Amino acid sequence: MLCRIVGVPVQDGAGRMGCEMGPSALRTAGLAAVLTELAHQVEDWGTVRPSEVAPLNHPNAALKALPEIAAWTAAIADTAYRASDGAMPIFLGGDHSISAGTLNGVARRAAELGRPLFVLWLDAHPDFHTLDTTASGNLHGVPLAYASGQPGFSGYFPALSPAIDPRRVCAMGLRSVDAPERQALTAAGVIVHDMRTIDEYGMAPLLRDFLKRVAQENGMLHVSLDVDFLDPAIAPAVGTTVPGGATFREAHLAMEMLSDTGLVTSLDIVELNPFLDERGRTAILMVDLAASLLGRRIMDRPTKSH
Question: What CATH number has the domain bearing residue 31?
Answer without folding.
Answer: 3.40.800.10
